[in-house]
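Annotated sample (chain length 93).
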Amino acid sequence: MIQKEMLIGFTVAIIATFFGLFLYIEFISSYSFDETVSMITEGSLWGKVLGLAAIPNLFVFFIYLKKKQDYRARGVMLATFFVAFLILIAQFF
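Output written by the structure step:
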């Protein structure tokens, strides 16, 4: 039961991160989606962009805490650490 709740929180957080990435690329950037992705890749900026994309995890985390779903909040925290690990890897490659 605990692992299932944490997996739900992890999955929701990963989806929120991809949603944040899409929002950043589509609406914040003044270039088209393809141009923005190529500029991020050419400039090796994936770490910085993933850091901005993880901001929606904060909202998901506090929603789960407010609803007293602590294990799902732990899953969100685990996903956030996973994204931070990806950012660390992106900084060196």
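Annotation: The radius of gyration is 14 Å.
Annotation: Residues 2-92 form one domain.
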